[in-house]
From TrEMBL:
It is found in: Cytoplasm; Nucleus. GO terms for biological process: COP9 signalosome assembly; protein deneddylation. Keywords: Cytoplasm, Nucleus, Signalosome. This is CSN8/PSMD8/EIF3K domain-containing protein. It comes from the Eukaryota. The keyword Nucleus applies. The keyword Cytoplasm applies.
Amino acid sequence: MGAPLSLEQLQQALTENLSNDALYDLLSSYEDEACQQFTPAGITGDATVLTAYYSSFLFSHLIIDEIQEARALTQRIPSTLIQNEPVIQHSIAILRSIYQNKFSETFALLRGQPWPKPVDIVVERVDAYYTEKSFRNISRIYESIRPEVAAEYLGLQNNAELTDILVKRGWDWDAEKELFRPHVPDELVNAGKARPPLDQISRTVGLASV
């Protein structure tokens, strides 16, 4: 690569209209350069740039469902960043909550603090991706679901707006029993399967067992 890894370079990568896979591949290509900016003894490059890079790269794993690979990445992030940088700590906490199927915690972590530029761009992608992923998963798995449970899974508030949102997405509302009847068109359920994730089966089973 020519120019050193920079916030401007990351900003450009994250604002390009790339698919999730293409974004992951692009950020992956920067890792060798990032590794040259630290040693076991400490950071030799710009800690702000490295923090933005590793957070963004970790999040790019999450939007292609490479959870195990994301966990492996945490072993390659400089320990100094993990110990001292809240952005890295929050990013790893989100990975952990996703791995443990803690839906409300995931959305709370994504939305509960300001994210620095340009990391905020990929955080918005992660939020949108997991909102949609949760919607599709529970639409397939549940025949009926209580509003408070649906709200927790989807990171939404349990209020009148929840009913409006989910009915517009194709769910039925049983007012007598106060239950949603999830339904989603097959073409939406089957969308986005071009790249099978390494742990797709285990994640679906994990959701069903919660």
